Amino acid sequence: MLLRVCHLYPDLLNLYGDRGNVLAFLARCRWRGIPAIVHRVQKGEQVNFQEMDFLFLGGGSDREQNLMTKDLMRRADALREAIEGGLVVLAICGGYQLLGHYYRTREGQIIPGLGLLDLFTVAGPRRLIGNIAVEIELDGKSWRITGFENHAGRTYLGQIAPLGRVLAGHGNNGEDGLEGARYKNVFCSYLHGPLLPKNPPLTDYLIQAALKRRGLPFSLEPLDDRLETAANQVMLRRLGVG
Ligand code: GLN
User: Fold this and answer.
1) 152: Cβ below 6 Å to ligand 1?
2) Could you tell me the fold of the domain covering 3-238?
């Protein structure tokens, strides 16, 4: 058993410590004796998504999104097939926007997305910035996750479920109370922080989904999450929803 983690465009898509998501996934595997390795895939490099167990796409500024969009487009069919087959994906902010139909910048430039998810993003006049709390449901159990958001893009969902509901903060667009998107094993969110180190239940859910997809035993030993839980509580209280 070996879980393969693909970090796509690690140099271009990595804002506010987004790489910590990969580190948290690996650490929580390692602490349970589950071997896992990272493939850092740059522009122009080959990767077989079917062989991967967890794909991570981080956030990036408009400039960086522009730099890798052509390369990403070439991977659209392969990625669609892997996603339909249950590939576990976490996409944050800029990475999230690129999985949708398009991102329209403040200047009116359309950066095409992969169109794998039914959503689009339009940059608004002011950035949506700050700490955020979101209620999400995993296997019928609800959790309050926390993070930090900083985006100009307002994302609107079509025929696709949100990741969760905003308790405090802005979320997808500051209007409809929704945050992120969820399709099969694809999880999208505006939450930096980074997201996974701050929210262990979500990390474990992704690890389990990856194990399940390979037909491996997926029940995970609990870990000592007292520090993470305490940090989560502090932020929820600070945001007035704890
Ligand atoms: N450029 C995008 C926006 O501002 C994404 C930013 C990000 O990934 N933090 O909406």
Assistant:
1) yes
2) Rossmann fold (3.40.50)
Angle at 24 between CA 22 and CA 29, to 5 degrees: 100
Give pLDDT tens digits along the chain (242 positions): 899 999 999 999 989 999 999 999 999 999 999 999 999 999 999 999 999 999 999 999 999 998 999 999 999 999 999 999 999 999 999 999 999 999 999 999 999 999 999 999 999 999 999 999 999 999 999 999 999 999 999 999 999 999 999 999 999 999 999 999 999 999 999 999 999 999 999 999 999 999 999 999 999 999 999 999 999 999 999 999 98
CA neighbor of 145 nearest in space, from 189, 92, 209, 94: 189
Show the tokens assigned to 132.
Answer: 């955020």
Q: Please state the separation of Cα 205 from the chain's center in Å.
A: 13
Task: Indicate whether residue 153 lines ligand 1 (CB < 6 A).
Answer: yes
Task: Return d(Cα 172, Cα 227) in angstroms, integer.
Answer: 28
> Phi and psi dihedrals of 149, rounded to 5?
-120, 150
Q: With the CA atoms of 8, 13, 19 and 24 taken in that order, what torsion angle do they form, in degrees rounded to the nearest 10?
A: -60
What are the φ and ψ backbone dihedral angles of 195, each rounded to 5 degrees?
Answer: -65, -55
- Distance (angstroms) between ligand 1 centre and the Cα of 128 equals 10
